[in-house]
Amino acid sequence: MTGIFTAVDTFSRILSRVAEAVALILVASMIYEVAARYVFSAPTIWAFDISYMCTGTLFVLGAAYALREDAHVRIDFLAQKLPVRFRQVMEGTVFVALLAPIYGGLSWFAVKRAWRAFTTAEVEMVSPWAPLMWPFYGLLALGLIAFTLQIFVHGLRIFAGNQKADFELKA
Amino acid sequence: MSVAALMFPLLFLFVLAGIPIALSLTIVSAGAGLLAFGPNVFGQLYGSFYSAATNFILAAIPMFVLMGAVLERSGIAERLFKVMQIWLGRLPGGLAVATIAMGAVFAAAAGVVGAVEVMIGMMAIPAMQRFRYSNSLISGTICAGGSLGTMIPPSVIAVMYASLAQMSVGELLAGMMLPGLVMVLLFIAYLMVHGTLWPPERTELQDEIEDISLAEKLRLTITSLVPIVALIFAVLGSLLAGVASPTEAASVGAVGALLLCVAYGRFSVTMLRESLQITVRISAMILLIVAAGTMFMGTFAANGGSRLIRSSVEAVGMGDAGIIIFFLLIVFLLGFVLDWTANVLICVPLFTPIIRQTGIDPVWFGTMVIIVIQTSYLTPPMASSIFYLKSIAPPDMTYGQMCRGVVPFIILQILTLALVAFYPPLSTWLPDQIVGF
Amino acid sequence: QEVTWQVPTSVPEGSPFYINFLERFADNVDVLTQGRVEIEPFGAGVLVPALQVYDGVKDGIIQAGHSTPSYRVNQDPINAIFAGFPGGMGPEAYITWIYEEGGKEALYDLRAKEGFKSLVVGIGSSEIMAHSNVPVKTAADLKGLKYRTSGPWAEVMREYFGAVPTVVPPGEIYTLLQRKGVDLIEWGPPSGNLPEGFHEAAKYIIVPGVHQPTFLWEVVLKQETWDAVADDLKPLIETAAELTTMQGLLHFYAEDVKALETYSKGKNEIITLDAAFIDELSAAGKDWISKKSEAEKEAGKPEMAALLADYNTFMDRWSAESSYLIRNQN
Ligand code: NA
Ligand code: NA
């Protein structure tokens, strides 16, 4: 069990590293566009697509690891007043029984969408560059899958009381 | 009660149970979506997710966060605040005033809330804590300063509002200018009064600073303040000169910050990696809330949310003042859960025809709506400003302190709203003077 | 009601396209079917992503959607003929082609191959060629100018006139035009541009809209959704669509005149291009689309070339014989 947990954590961490690289690409492509347009009067046809794709990719790929780090903001001043065990069961249930299936469903649709983009050679709809869309769809699907797994693992950990220390520390 | 109306209490339940905001939004959206779309619910939710993931304007968020992280990690921010303390130390609430001023300046460069707040927060929190400003004052200052991006032109939200309301973008931007200025001045006045009545306790740091010779002070100022001011000019200037669009200006900021690091000899791979880590973590948190908020909006609308609002306006059947108050109240309530894009997308089309019928000045009304949206970011328990602050706050800064900290600023925003409401020329005079080329 | 469809479109609620096309369609359907069919319009990005209305219908998320073939040009260039292209027919000729000379049938056949039932809901007037910071009167003036545009026009501008097409997302066009980050922009017809405020950001307004002489929007449904509709309702819905298109175009004309009056009264300078330059621009556009259709033909897809030939034939007939029409133009 812990082996699987660690594997999921590692997967999330790797995607988060990729997201860091994507953040750099975002900044670089946008500043390049500014320079290309203003200094050289030769704007690119790709900077706009690359920028929005980077933004989308970086947050989806980063979401799982952010969950591992408990960085998704929550309001817990009321919850902290609840008995620890009650809170564990409640949060564990919400994560395992509600959130994991929901994000599982989203991941499933995301994979389907990426596959369709691949088989139909779908291209960007309004961009003059008209890049193939499946790599972007694929990255979104990958990020959602990692997020789903991390949600599931988070829920199980809470049930098992593995994160009990966290709970008591904050309370 | 309709499904749309039930979505709100349900959301509060999950949020107050301590489930992360973005995930609470997802759960309620999925439930409501199931009722509206049946087995196709995942396709619909994925669409909302996709809309958020492909929204170009959100690119400003990771870039401003990176800028803040780089300035903070490299120690440049610390030096900057030290210099500000040198010159503003005797001014009541000096650093807080400086933080608000910085908020206003970067707000002028950025259109998206969250971006500026996180950037300024990362720099200002450690500095203000070192000089013993209270946690609640720090929280309030940063939340309020960061949310100014909405009011101070060019604001993406105002552009979107005007375009949805079929009114002049230029007029709305100009209309918001004086109220925005009034708001900044009120914030500064409050911080100075607060600083006079309850000055932060003196620290050894303050003594150290006073021992520095004038020559050294000047040297520090030139080496710390000038480059930062240059950075601000680069961001703002690129925008005003038409070199960069508002979103692109954020990339000028991020690159500028990195160049500053290199110039100061503070650049290192570790620093860059740490900054990127922070950027990814905070951007993922903020954008997931935006994505989940988009899901919430879609399922709210599909379950008759707009119809619910429209029919309640008709049912109440009130005069102009009543309509305005009712609309502002709706914006305020939706602002608790929805991010501004979703809020504006739902409300503006609903209000526009009715406002037009009544003959209420659209610039005046639009200005008030935007002030209220900004206020709703700040108002606990559901306040995006506070959520964003939480993501960068040190552990000793509590949610309670944050909530208390924003209260005075909420009051000042309501005061600004009242000034605009009772003295419409505050928003309608300037557009007549300056719109055009 | 017997049928209720939630119908999203690709433009925000409240925009002229939304009100003039989709809302009008909903009202007409309500009247003609005596309330038996309810169309509930939704603005862009609420139920499905703004540009993925066709996908939303295909995936069964929504029963029907309202969008434009423009968004399908990158995927399949044949859509450019329906979307309106540089040098193509203006609204008068185009609407005649669509309803009287086989255009509509060609569109419906194309959509049927994709599994959709299509209804033309909205044909528009000509767009404004540009809101500009610099006067443009000749081809030489275009050289090197940063022009916010997209689609076929972007390619024509780059390849034939040496202009620099620039991608600017919708929310930032106003700011970038006002700050002179781009020299000129095109967006929509006069009444569509008025609320965007571009005339306050830049002095010159350049007409006519050679780049987009007209445009078309459609409502699409899955074929099985359409088949399930009671047979007596189908002609009523189709008539509502046709009525909406006719009323919508007339309404655009009326609103465009008002918009241009506003522009003329203000500080803007309206530049009407001379006939020779218009011909030059149109010829480039026609050349672009015929090359495109030839390329498609060589790639084993002759449909676009065949349709273009049909379209061109009618355009030529119209050009040759429409001199009898009184247009009341100065
Ligand atoms: Na701003
Ligand atoms: Na256009």
From TrEMBL, chain A:
Q: Does the keyword Lipid biosynthesis apply?
A: no
Q: Which domain of life is it from?
A: Bacteria
Keyword Membrane listed? The answer is yes
| Coiled-coil segments | none
A GO-annotated cellular component: plasma membrane
Residues annotated as domain Tripartite ATP-independent periplasmic transporters DctQ component: 26-159
The topology of this chain with respect to the membrane is: Multi-pass membrane protein
GO MF term set: transmembrane transporter activity
GO BP of this protein: C4-dicarboxylate transport
Per UniProt, subcellular location reads as:
Cell inner membrane
Q: Which residues cross the membrane?
A: 21-40, 46-67, 88-111, 131-153
Sorted alphabetically, which keywords does the UniProt record give?
A: Cell inner membrane, Cell membrane, Membrane, Transmembrane, Transmembrane helix, Transport
Which residue positions does the secretion signal occupy? none
Q: What is its main location?
A: membrane
This molecule's function is given as: Part of the tripartite ATP-independent periplasmic (TRAP) transport system.
Q: Which family does it belong to?
A: Belongs to the TRAP transporter small permease family.
Q: How does it assemble?
A: The complex comprises the extracytoplasmic solute receptor protein and the two transmembrane proteins.
Q: What protein name is recorded for this chain? A: TRAP transporter small permease protein
Q: Which organism is it from?
A: Roseibium limicola
From TrEMBL, chain B:
Q: Which InterPro entries match?
A: DctM, TRAP_DctM
- Organism's domain of life? Bacteria
Protein name listed in UniProt: TRAP transporter large permease protein
Q: How does it assemble?
A: The complex comprises the extracytoplasmic solute receptor protein and the two transmembrane proteins.
Q: GO terms for CC? A: plasma membrane
Q: Which family does it belong to?
A: Belongs to the TRAP transporter large permease family.
Could you tell me which species this protein originates from? Roseibium limicola
Q: Its principal location? A: membrane
Q: Where are the transmembrane segments?
A: 48-71, 92-125, 137-160, 172-193, 220-242, 249-267, 279-302, 323-351, 363-389, 401-423
How is it placed in the membrane, per its record? Multi-pass membrane protein
Q: What does this protein do?
A: Part of the tripartite ATP-independent periplasmic (TRAP) transport system.
Domain named TRAP C4-dicarboxylate transport system permease DctM subunit is located at 10-425
**Where does the UniProt annotation locate this protein?**
Cell inner membrane
Q: Name one GO molecular function term.
A: transmembrane transporter activity
Which keywords are on file for this protein? Cell inner membrane, Cell membrane, Membrane, Transmembrane, Transmembrane helix, Transport
Q: Write the lineage as a comma-separated list.
A: Bacteria, Pseudomonadati, Pseudomonadota, Alphaproteobacteria, Hyphomicrobiales
